[in-house]
Design goal:
heterodimer, A: about 170 residues, mainly alpha, Four Helix Bundle (Hemerythrin (Met), subunit A), 2 domains, about 75% helix, about 0% strand, globular, B: about 350 residues
Chain lengths: ~170, ~350
């Protein structure tokens, strides 16, 4: 086993374990913290694929900003294990069955997708994930979708301000 | 066996030694920064300051540390125990992590190896720093929430919203620097400023530096931005319930943050390990490297002094003033600065 493989298995185990802990934790604050651990593990995978920019942006945006907002909401609403509404056991069972079906569909889709078959991930030597190449691709080949998505963000911001305004 | 051969052991050992040196040096400097803070405060308030422990009071930081360790460790009954312990640890880790991408100097030659005095020269260096800074918020938030005290919680929320608000202006001020340098690697940014005939970035980006400096002060929760602590309205802020070394970790991480942000400002705007009016390439590499480290440390010391000077001169902002300054003054200014820089660069390219 090479160092890359060891890191891959370690990160995968960490990601899956943390993801399970997100679901199992009774305390919502613990769930959020485990979710942050998941993001860290995923960022580790990005680094293994030499997509450093994506890795760090994943951390800054998801772990650094969005999860802080989650924590804000949970702390201000003072959710905790005691006040959490208890679901009926049949509800839980139905959730597990439908979730399992969805997972099966996803797995079979990924396995059969032509984009995925007979492809190997570029470990360490692919450099499309480096910021220089990514920037060139974004601002030349994909400039129209990029600009349109920025307009989308702007409209979301304006909407948030309008909703947040007093009166 | 195959596995053992796959690793470059010399590189691993070299990096481990470097990490140990840098982490312990940062801790040692932070220790004496607390001493410097008290001395600077004393000078500004016209009193002698700590002068009992050792010559000129030089052993004072060790006495303080011993006092913190010896104090009783109290975990409140109603606190969330695991998170209560995790909070200060996270604050400390996040503070120390940013030292990984700071170029302390060029390279030294030792045992026929050329050793870079930087733990990792990754091509997203400055973004890594931003990632780590955004992690620093969790130390405050988790500690404040886990204490199960409403003052702590309010202080934690204040601290987090302050950090997020000022991160934005900081990032926008940074973009202008990156437009000039065209690289995210701190080492490349420093080397560009060292080139013959090159001025430090602060000459091209005075406004950007000012915005960055104010935001760095807010990120470190230093007065006039120490709203999360605000003794006279929130008792002691997010670390009110903490005692002993856990409190020490919180207080200490503030000083480490200060050192790291000073180092980053020195690298981005003041030429990093560049010695002014001296062409380093004429010196032997080892001499140049050691002088470079000293130059960077001097710049850091000057920044830290300015931080303290401001702390003991300017009173704290009110919370709405803080938010107004961040969102209505600094962010528009940083945007204008960014646009102007872009326009000038375009004009130069013809």
């Amino acid at each position: 086993m090479s160092t890359t493989e060891i890191l891959f298995f370690f990160l995968s185990a960490l990601a899956i374990f943390s993801a399970i802990m997100v679901l199992v934790s009774k305390n919502p604050v613990h769930s959020v913290l485990w979710l942050i651990a998941v993001f860290f593990a995923i960022s580790g995978h990005y680094i293994l694929l030499n997509a450093q920019f994506l890795a760090i942006v994943n951390l800054i945006v998801y772990a650094g900003a969005i999860m802080v907002l989650f924590l804000f909401v949970i702390m201000l609403m003072n959710l905790n294990a005691e006040t959490e509404p208890q679901k009926h056991v049949w509800m839980k069972l139905a959730g597990a069955v439908s979730g399992g079906c969805f997972l099966m569909v996803l797995v079979s889709l990924v396995r059969q997708a032509t984009d995925m078959q007979h492809k190997t991930a570029l470990m360490k030597d692919g450099n499309i994930g480096l910021i220089k190449n990514l920037g060139k691709a974004l601002f030349s080949d994909y400039v129209v979708p990029f600009e349109i998505s920025s307009v989308l963000f702007l409209s979301a911001m304006v909407g948030a301000v309008v909703i947040g305004k007093k009166e | 066996m195959n596995l053992l051969l796959a690793i470059d052991w010399a590189l691993l050992i070299e990096k481990l030694i470097l990490i140990a040196i840098i982490v312990f040096a940062s801790l040692g400097i932070a220790l004496y920064t607390t001493f410097a803070e008290r001395k600077v405060a004393a000078v500004l308030q016209d009193r002698p300051g700590p002068n009992r422990a050792g010559p000129f009071g030089l052993f004072q930081p060790f006495a303080d540390g011993l006092k913190l360790i010896m104090k009783e460790e109290i975990i409140p009954n109603t606190a969330n125990k695991s998170l209560f312990i995790l909070g200060p640890g996270l604050a400390m880790t996040a503070a120390l992590m940013s030292c990984a991408v700071i170029p302390w100097s060029s390279h030294i030659e030792l045992f026929d190896r050329s050793i870079d005095l930087q733990i990792a020269d990754i091509n997203i260096g400055i973004l890594y720093v931003f990632g780590v800074v955004s992690m620093g918020v969790y130390g405050i938030m988790i500690g404040g929430w886990a204490s199960n005290n409403k003052f702590s919680l309010m202080a934690a929320l204040r601290g987090a919203s302050q950090a997020i608000s000022y991160e934005l202006a900081m990032g926008l001020a940074l973009i202008a620097v990156l437009m000039i340098s065209g690289s995210l690697s701190l080492k490349t940014i420093v080397e560009q400023q060292m080139g013959p005939g090159q001025l430090w970035n602060v000459a091209y980006q005075p406004l950007g530096f000012l915005i960055f400096f104010i935001c760095a002060m807010a990120e470190c929760n230093r007065t006039p931005f120490d709203l999360p602590e605000a003794e006279n309205e929130l008792n002691f802020g997010y670390h009110q319930e903490y005692s002993s070394m856990k409190l020490g970790f919180y207080l200490f991480s503030e000083y480490i943050n200060m050192i790291m942000s000073s180092a980053i400002m020195a690298c981005l705007f003041f030429g990093g390990y560049d010695i002014p009016f001296l062409n380093e390439s004429t010196l032997a590499p080892n001499v140049a490297a050691i002088l470079g480290v000293l130059a960077l440390l001097t710049k850091i010391a000057i920044f830290i002094f300015v931080f303290m000077w401001i702390r003991w001169t300017i009173p704290r902002f009110r919370y709405d003033q803080l938010m107004n300054l961040g969102w209505k003054t600094l962010i528009p200014l940083a945007l204008v600065n960014m646009l102007a820089t872009g326009a000038v660069i375009l004009w130069h390219q013809g």
